[in-house]
Amino acid sequence: MAENAVPALPGVRTKLPVGTIVVLGVWAVCTAVYHLGGNGLFLAVRRDPEALRAGEVWRVISPVLVQPDSVLTVLGLGVFAAVLGTVTERAFGTGRWVVLFLAGALAGHLIGEIWQPYSGGVSVGFCGPLGALAVCLILTRKWQPGVVVLAGAVALTVITDIHGPAILAGALAGLPLIRSGARALPATQPTRE
């Protein structure tokens, strides 16, 4: 059923979402280390404008490694990211998925250096594929969910939530990656019930 909702781009044969598994595996280990008392790890990878200006350029991407939120939030985010990552990686393929993940992570954490410094998390990375998924839905004439996601991204951006720019970055990065392939996807027709 999910495959019908989000059809794979032509030529995509991804069954095992390797990118999602690797990202969530590394994130889970680093987050567990932090929650078990490894605060030094978080301090070394979190968003930190002063450290970034001092040359610690890894801080534009390293905040995806540790989730400083409560354990319950971490578990919920992990489940959501696993589902979203699997669906989008199967639709776009692992290579495109990695590009989209990086677009979301970089956009979210770069703007986060200004809007929400001294934190981190993987959610903005998964916003990249979410933005591309919205574009794919719009291009395949499944307007409503795609428009809702992009409108939500604009609203988040207006209220200075880093997830908004991350979704929009994924949409922008996804457009050229999926546009030619999406033309070959079947358009859905409205059904009468």
How would you describe what is shown here?
- It is a single chain.
- With 193 residues, the protein is mostly helical.
- The chain has a single domain, classed as Rhomboid-like fold.
- It has helices spanning 2-5, 18-35, 39-45, 49-53, 71-92, 94-115, 123-139, 143-158, 163-183.
- Helix 2 packs antiparallel against helix 5 and helix 5 crosses helix 6 (94-115).
- The relative contact order is 0.16.
- The model is unreliable at 183-193 (pLDDT under 50).
CATH superfamily: Rhomboid-like
Q: Which value, in Å, is the CA radius of gyration?
A: 17 Å
Largest sheet: none
Average predicted confidence as pLDDT:
90
Quaternary structure: single chain
**Shape category:** globular
Number of strands: 0
Euclidean distance between termini CA atoms: 18 Å
Residue runs with pLDDT of under 50 for 5 or more positions: 183-193
Amount of beta strand:
under 5%
**What's the domain count?**
1
Write down the CATH class.
Mainly Alpha
Structure annotation, total helices? 9
CATH hierarchy: architecture: Up-down Bundle
CATH topology: Rhomboid-like fold
Please write the string of helix (H) and strand (E) elements. Answer: HHHHHHHHH
